[in-house]
Design a protein that fits this description.
Blueprint (H helix, E strand, L loop, with lengths): L4 H7 L9 H14 L2 E4 L7 E4 L2 H9 L4 E2 L9 H12 L14 H10 L4 H24 L3 E3 H6 L2 H10 L6 H12 L12 H24 L5 H6 L2 E2 L2 E2 L2 H32 L1 H9 L4 H12 L4 E6 L3 E3 L2 E3 L4 E5 H4 L34 H15 L3 E6 L4 E2 L8 E3 L1 E6 L1
Parallel strand pairs: 2-10
Antiparallel strand pairs: 1-2, 3-7, 4-14, 5-6, 7-10, 8-9, 11-14, 12-13
Helix pairs in contact: 1-2, 6-8, 6-16, 8-12, 9-10, 9-12, 10-12, 12-14, 12-16, 14-16
């Protein structure tokens, strides 16, 4: 069935569209061709402008003082927008780096910045490689068949990021469940419940856990990122409980689900493109390029929203002050004007100007760590891989924010 432009726009507000790669990319390609700045008025949502061209996403990212994260940093239903606004006024809302603009964003981002600089990443890399080896060994233990997304990819990055935070391994399963409920709030299988109240319960469970962690780290500081966050000060005062918990939430969740989605989707891409798998195995020096191609291919973060502080013209369309735009990263990363043959998976793609980590002041804090994790895992897996094939039907998460494969059954032989 051929989509209309309006139907294509509505797909960007439909969690089920992101679980269907073909439908999503058909919609995005149509919007790029015929209506790259497209007004969407979906049932249950406040209106927004869908921005689908790479150049336009980049332009808005650069104009960070004109297009603000607040008050609508992510796509949500009109009901949830209002609930978030009310909770923000009450001072009990999630307020991560994703929600902030300067000057707060700059100051709060600096709290964790040193933990993600090159020197810190080099110190962490041996632990990352140890965990990569552990999870490839685990694949051997599964006897040649597993659900790679659920049993491997979902766990390895979580162990890395929670090790960085300094959390005990006994809490890792709890964190996995909470992160899946948070980003799977629109997925029938992963959600705690369909109501807004049940979705907010997930956040409150995060807050309760991290409130206890903050108290422990303030009483007894340790040499980990959790202590750095718990004891951080802004203008001579510690962060309040909600801002502290929000910082933990963004590190624990964004540092996990985005990377696990890339690892699972990267393996799927290699299976579906055996020539590229053979090429990468024959030339391991391609790994840095291959990692960025996996990130582009999967694009785990599907969108961020920005709100205009004054009228702004984009491609001949006037976005009025107070109106919101949705930055479609999957669309930007398949833009024919930027990527040669964008629907070809190419482990040697160079240049690769993908926007999966964003751009400018909001560039992903953990981008270097994500690249290290993905590279470490495949550098451990590929030399030991003798064969691999599908063992069932892959399934994607229904989402409008962060997602990828939730199931990837595979059959394989490992040395």
């Amino acid at each position: 069935m051929t989509l209309t432009v309006d139907e294509a726009g509505l797909a960007l507000a439909d969690p089920k569209a992101y679980a269907d790669d073909r439908r999503l990319h058909e919609a995005c390609a149509l919007l790029r061709r015929e209506s790259p700045v497209h007004r969407v008025e979906g049932p249950g949502y406040n209106p927004f402008w869908a921005v689908t061209k790479h150049a336009d996403v980049l332009e808005i990212e650069r104009e960070h003082t004109l297009f603000l994260n607040a008050p609508r940093p992510l796509l949500a239903t009109a009901e949830m927008d209002e609930l978030n606004r009310t909770r923000a006024e009450q001072g009990i809302a999630l307020r991560t780096l994703v929600h902030m603009d300067d000057p707060d964003h700059r100051v709060v981002r600096a709290i964790g910045a040193d933990w993600f600089r090159p020197r810190a990443m080099r110190a962490l890399e041996p632990r990352v490689r140890e965990l990569a080896r552990r999870y490839v060994d685990r694949m051997v233990g599964f006897g040649g068949e597993c659900d790679f997304a659920r049993q491997v990819a979902a766990h390895f990055p979580l162990y890395v990021i929670l090790s960085l935070l300094g959390l005990p391994e006994s809490d890792f399963d709890r964190m996995l469940k909470l992160t899946q409920e948070l980003f799977g709030g629109d997925d029938d299988e992963l959600q705690r419940g369909a109501s807004n109240e049940e979705k907010l319960e997930v956040l409150m469970d995060f807050f309760a856990y991290f409130k206890d962690l903050t108290e422990a780290r303030r009483a007894h500081p340790t040499d980990d990122l959790a202590s750095a966050i718990a004891n951080a000060e802004v203008d001579g005062k510690p962060l309040n409980d909600f801002d502290t918990a929000s910082y933990y939430v963004i590190v624990a969740t964004a540092g996990h689900d985005t990377t696990s989605a890339t690892i699972a989707g990267g393996l799927q891409a290699l299976i579906e493109h055996p020539d590229q798998l053979d090429r990468l195995r024959a030339d391991p020096a391609l790994m840095p390029l291959a990692v960025d191609e996996m990130i582009r291919w999967v694009t785990p973060v599907k969108e961020f929203m920005r709100t205009a502080t004054r009228d702004y013209e984009l491609r001949g369309t006037t976005i009025r002050e107070g109106e919101s735009v949705l930055l479609s990263y999957p669309s930007a990363n398949r833009d024919e004007d930027v990527f040669d043959d964008p629907f070809r998976f190419d482990v040697g793609r160079d240049p690769n100007k993908h926007l999966a980590f964003g751009f400018g002041v909001h560039y992903c804090l953990g981008a270097a760590l994500a690249r290290i994790e993905v590279a470490a895992f495949f550098e451990e897996l590929l030399p030991r891989l003798r064969s691999i094939e599908p063992a069932g039907t892959p399934e994607n998460i229904a989402t409008t924010f962060v997602g990828g494969l939730k199931s990837l059954p595979v059959r394989y032989s490992l040395a």
